[in-house]
Design goal:
The structure holds two protein chains of two kinds. Chain A is mainly beta. Chain A has one domain. Chain A contains two helices and eleven strands, in the order βββββββαβββαβ. By secondary structure, chain B is α/β, with parallel strands linked by helices. Helix content of chain B is 41%, strand content 14%. Chain B contains 13 helices and ten strands. In chain B, helix 6 links the parallel strand 4 and strand 5. In chain B, helix 8 crosses helix 9 and helix 12 crosses helix 13. Classes of the chains: A mainly beta, B alpha/beta. At the A-B interface, strand 3 and helix 2 of A face helix 1 and helix 3 of B.
């Protein structure tokens, strides 16, 4: 769902922390028709210009709080990502990206379900690694975006 | 008395996503253009900061409902068993979520909550006393590929759904004597053939050749058999059971006449549809070519069903890989659906 609209156009920027360029970020929406408990959000498969950036170097900014890594997001069991709200995905990359066009491939992972499933124990012990369609909710393919960094 | 029309705001999910309409605009659309009062929501799409609706939201919602004299019919509620991430939610915890949803529904003036077909009956039973206290009915959804009555040849279409779900709910209702549990049939159970929008979408997502192969093999084979052929011919196909089942659909998961026997248990109905197109030769009249509406409506009217059919449009997701201009107009689709509902209800209500 919303395959081509998960990343907002014109949202790609480099991130600056303590005067240093620490990576890049862009704004994302939820690939579903409902919001979710934030703890269910399990990170992204992200490739930028054919380089993959694993969940361990991703942070997620939502609900007016500082960006949190996905170990912290996992603990946000009483916080909600509302359907209407945009989140910002922060990716660590020393020096950030060069200005110009960048190809970004993305798959979101949210462990939303409609009840008990046969793989529940497996997902508890080994949450799916984003990118293969497992835990990808309503959009199991990888979406491609060409975004400009100004 | 009789069949009343309403809309699940699920139908406007794409319009909401692009911020072209908010829930107040949706209420206005139902009131001003569809000329009816039935409202259904997905809790996690509409309620800000779910599950802790603010007093301001509750008042704002109730005020808007009062302003236009609307009727909040059913609130759709969910069950995400991985919420806590350090353990799988047990049945008592699942019941706590349902109880909280019931209280929320009550605050917003709803009469019913729709819970999903995979929610264990035991969880519903644990929440019954709360449902009674707040005078909210818990309606379990009969969603495709479930039948109403078991015994159809293709009932093992899904590995997790129990085809006896309807009987299990009726057993619970009879055993406890509760007036606060029932069923929410979804018109998707009367879908008898694949919707063209979905076939075209899957051709773009996978490959035309693979989808043609599925359609061809699906004529003579079951879903399991086709899946085996796919595993052999396309080892990395990545298609799941449900999607495959929807593509090779040959008959509906429930028989229209079976609805007659569950009418006393129906809480409200999901008017699921995918694509309303003009009826050949009938200007301004619309139909969904993949879903049987006329017979179930006839049976509902003839057997005295008194309640709401709430439109639930779901075709938008098959166009969201396209440019914005090629995406489907949800508002227009729902208007067409209400043309059909109005026409069919009138035809049988004498």
């Amino acid at each position: 769902m919303f395959d081509r609209f998960l990343i907002r156009e014109n949202s790609l920027e480099n991130t600056k922390e303590d005067g240093q360029c620490t990576g890049f970020k862009f704004s994302v929406r939820i690939a579903d028709y409902r919001g979710c408990f934030l703890s269910l959000h399990n990170g992204y498969y992200v490739k930028c210009d054919d380089v993959e950036y694993p969940v361990s170097i991703q942070r997620f900014e939502i609900n007016g709080k500082e960006p949190r890594n996905f170990e912290e997001i996992k603990k946000a069991v009483w916080e909600h990502w509302d359907y209407d709200d945009e989140g910002v995905l922060w990716i660590e990359k020393d020096g950030g990206l060069e200005p110009g066009m960048h190809k970004i491939e993305l798959q979101q992972s949210i462990l939303a379900q409609y009840g008990y499933m046969p793989w529940d124990q497996e997902w508890l012990e080994n949450p799916p690694v984003p990118g293969k369609g497992l835990g990808a909710g309503k959009n199991t393919t990888v979406s491609q975006f060409n975004l400009e960094l100004k | 008395m009789g069949i009343k029309r309403g809309v699940s705001f699920y139908s406007y999910q794409q319009t909401q996503f692009f911020k072209q309409m908010n829930w107040k605009d949706m209420i206005r659309e139902v009131h001003d253009n569809l000329k009816t009062d039935g409202v259904e929501i997905v809790d996690e799409a509409i309620i800000k900061k779910y599950p802790f609706a603010t007093d301001e939201f509750v008042f704002d919602w109730n005020n808007e409902i009062a302003r236009f004299n609307m009727n909040p019919v059913t609130m759709d509620v969910y069950l995400d068993v991985h919420q806590f991430r350090d353990h799988i939610m047990n049945h008592r915890e699942a019941a706590e979520r349902l109880k909280n949803d019931i209280k929320l529904a009550s605050k917003l003036g709803f009469k019913n909550v729709r819970c999903l077909c995979l929610v264990p009956t035991e969880v519903i039973e644990m929440a019954l006393s709360t449902a009674e206290k707040y005078d909210i009915k818990i309606g379990k959804e009969i969603h495709a590929p479930l039948p109403i009555k078991p015994g159809l040849s293709h009932e093992k279409i899904d590995p997790v759904l129990d085809p006896r779900m309807v009987d299990q709910m009726i057993e619970l209702i009879e055993r406890t004597g509760t007036k606060h549990a029932g069923l929410v049939p979804d018109f998707g159970i009367f879908q008898h053939s694949p919707t063209k929008l979905a076939i075209d979408y899957y051709k773009r997502q996978y490959s035309s050749e693979m989808i043609e192969f599925i359609l061809d093999k699906g004529k003579e084979n079951t879903v399991e058999e086709v899946l085996k052929m796919m595993d052999k011919k396309y080892p990395n196909h990545g298609m799941n059971f449900m999607t495959l089942g929807a593509i090779i659909m040959k008959e509906s998961s429930a028989r229209p006449e079976d609805i007659k026997d569950i009418i006393p248990y129906i809480v409200s109905i999901h008017g699921k549809f995918y694509h309303m197109t003009e009826v050949a030769g009938q200007l301004g009249q619309y139909e969904d070519q993949a879903i049987e509406y006329e017979k179930p409506i006839q049976y509902l009217v003839e057997n005295g069903f008194d309640g709401y059919i709430n439109s639930e449009f779901e075709g938008q997701r098959y166009c969201q890989d396209l440019d914005k201009v090629q995406m489907i107009d949800e508002v227009e689709q729902v208007r067409r659906h209400h043309e059909m509902l109005t026409r069919l209800i009138r035809k049988y209500e004498k």
